[in-house]
Structure formats: C-alpha cells, structure tokens
Amino acid sequence: MKKSLIWTLTAVMALTFGTLLYFQIMYLEKMVKMREGQFSENVMRSIHSTVGILERYETLHYLEEDVKLFNNDADDSGIFDQEFSISEKNTTPAEDKTRNIKSDNGQISPYLSYPSPTQDVSARFRNMRETIRSQYQYQQGLLNEIVLTILREAPTRPPKERADSALVRSILKNELELNGVTLPFTFGVASDENSFIYTTANFVNPEETDAYSSTLFPNTGSDYKLYVEFPTRDSYIFSSVRFIIPTLAFSIILLVIFLYTVILIFHQKRLSEMKTDFINNMTHEFKTPISTISLAAQMLDDESVRKSPAMLKHLATVIADESKRLRFQVEKVLQMSVYDDAGGSALKFTEVNINSIIANVVNTHKIKAEKDGGSIELHLDAVNAEVVLDEMHFTNVIFNLLDNAIKYMKSDTPPHLIVTTKDLTNSQVEIRIRDNGIGIKKEDLKRIFDKFYRVSTGNLHNVKGFGLGLAYVKKMVTIFKGTINVESEIGKWSEFIIRLPLARAD
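Given the sequence above, the corresponding structure tokens read:
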C-alpha cells in the first residue's frame, strides 16, 4: 500500500472520528444545560411559591390578631348581651329570617336593623340593601386596617418570627416535591448586608456556590433574602445524562484503536522498508566474497595455476579471507536473533577492568585510522573501572562503535577519534567515543539504535553493513544494566556516551 493512500485514509478516518466526537460532546453539553435549566426553573418556581405562602401566613397572623382584638372589644361593649326581640305576633317568617342575619364570624352585626311589620316589601328591600352595604363597608374597613397594620408593623417583627426555619423548611420541601425536586437541600435567610440571620446545617456561603435566592416578603419592602443550595445538584444533573457517557467512551476507544492501528501500519511499513534495505545490503555484502571464492575456484581449474605454488598459496589466502569475511557477515546477522531469544542467558559475566579492554580495541583500530592519515586519542581517566559484564561482548560493543566512527568519516578529512573514560559517580563509570565525521541528522538520532535501520548513505553502498551494529550495541549495554546515548552535530561530529554500573559501588 502506498504511503499517500495510507495518509489519505488516516486523514478521512481522523476527520470522521473527530466530527463524531465533536457532535457527541456538543449534544452532551446541550443536554446538561437543558437539565440545569429545567432544574433551576423548578427550584425557582418552588421558592417563589414558598415566598407567597409565607406572605399569606403572615397575613393570617394579623387576621387572627385582629379577630382576637375585635372579640375582646365586643365582649367589653356588651354587644353579645343585647337582646333584639320583636313580638311574635307583630312579625312574619320573612321578618324573623331578616332579624336573624349574622356576621360571617357568627356574631350579630351592630349595623343590622330590623324592619317593622308595617313596612312594605320595597321598604324592606331598601333596608336590607343598606344593611348589606353597611356590613360590606365595615368588613372592608377591617381589611384596610389589617393591611395598614401589616405594612406598619410587619417590618418591625423579628425575622425569625416572620420566617420560622421549621416553617420555611416544611413549606419549601413540600413545594419542591410538588415540582419534582426531591434532592436534599440546605437554606439560609440573610439581611441586606448578606449577613445570615440563620442557616441550616452544612450550608455554604452562596458566593462560593450556585445558590438559588429570592427576596422574602417583597410586598412589605423587606430586604431579607432566602438562599437555597443543593449539595448533590451536579451529580444529579450528571446522572440524568449519564446514558450518553458510554457512547462517548466507545467512540474514544474506537479512536484510540484506530490511531494505534495506524501507528502499527506505519511501523510495519517502516520495518518492511528496513528489511528490504537489509536484504539489498546483505545481497551486496554476500555477493562480493561469493564471487571472489567462485573466481578462485575457477582459477584452480586451470592447470597452469595449479603448477604455480605461489599462485596456489595466493588463491588459498583469498579463499580463506573471503570465507572469513562471509562467516563474519553471517554471524552479524545471527547475533541479534540469538540474543533476542536468549535474553542474555548465555553470557558469561565476570568482573573486568574496562580500561584495559578499551585500550586493546583502540590499539587494533589505530592502524586503520593512521592508514587514512588520522589518529585516535585515548584518555583512560577512570580510577574505578571494575565492571561486571561479558568481556567478549563488551569488546564487540567498543569494536562496533570505533568501526562506525572510522566508516562514517568525511572523505576530505582525516579521522580523529577521542576515547575517554572517567568516574561519573561513586556507582557509575562513563565511556565517551567522539569522532569528527559526517554527523547524524536529528531525525536519524531517534532511530539509530533500531534493528535494520541505516542512515541514507546505506542505499548508496558506500558504507557496508546491515544496520545491526548499533542495535547490537544497544542490546548489550542494556543487558549490562547500563545506558547509551548519542549526541551529534551534522557535518561536524558525533559522540556516543555509555554509562555502566561499577562492580563495587561505594
């Protein structure tokens, strides 16, 4: 599959998932706002009903006070001791009925008059109308007096009497339930300075929460406010829309799986490309020694060659060298698979001095560097250099790093390598191998230790190899419980840094 097609499919799927998630999140947000609006509307309706009921309770209080006062005044004036009697012979049943008209509270109204038996029907009707009008004016006067009393005396009543906490709780709970709100609530009553007169348990300052509020007794000019809070409101609203959460979660899971699949596709494609490059390099590396051996074998068929001892010796040397070279390449291919499977179980760990091992490997490579007019500086400054590791494989690690440093040199610059060891801490020793070669690009630094990976010069075959050397180095350093890093500046230098734990840490 072409990379462009993969990128196109990835972009389309990413856009699809992104749009789906966007709409789901927007829907969830709108659902939450709708639930919040419905909840707030029900709560405010309940609070306003509570405020109205409290006002009616206060009106009832003053009505009861005025009734008591009227009863006391009536008793004092002897109204109920008066007898309004009319001779039975001078009255009719209709007149008796008119005579017995009483006020709403069961008491005889002082404004009632009794028509004489000699009055005609129209006179009786006028008298009754006047009686009812007088009674209405009296009752209206009472009501006006009560209203004036409420306006005059209500603001001076203690707020705890006007809005008793038990009464407020009972009314508010009942109104909330009528509007479908059954959540636990707390409330408080505050003055205009926002200093609370009383609060229920667990009530929080409304400035810190989304409390609902309304003015108490607004028709009497009161500045008292009722604040109501719902501690579990957010969880209640969330629970009402939680059915959307699984769909959102499944969408996210699908998106993660899709992204992981795309990453795997690109990873597999990169591995495929590296393996293809590896096969091309391996073919080239094997082709040369095989061709040389084949040519030497053909020359041995020539009788003139067989008669020359010098030529036979030369051909034998060539066959031996090329066979050794071929065997070395095969071993390099097998190294990684062997140690991937073995996990280091076949290694022979001993306590060695890394200074001496590095010195021996450097002496071997000095000849290669001096052959191209270069040199290798060696600074073994580490005092504590005793490390537990496999000597043979550690030698291969240093060998690979020095071999790469010489391979990847600039064509117009003699190689100059600097190898140093130093005490890093009481528990670690550090090894640095620095060159003045072509450097490594930033994008290659992240992948340079990957198996089969080679920098761009690998396809040109100007540097031989399979892309296994640094992968092998990384693997072995990790088995030795150490770390390896690389720093580089393109076109100028590269430096590999190895840190290993000491055998006897202080």
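The radius of gyration is 52 Å. Try to locate this feature in the token string yourself.
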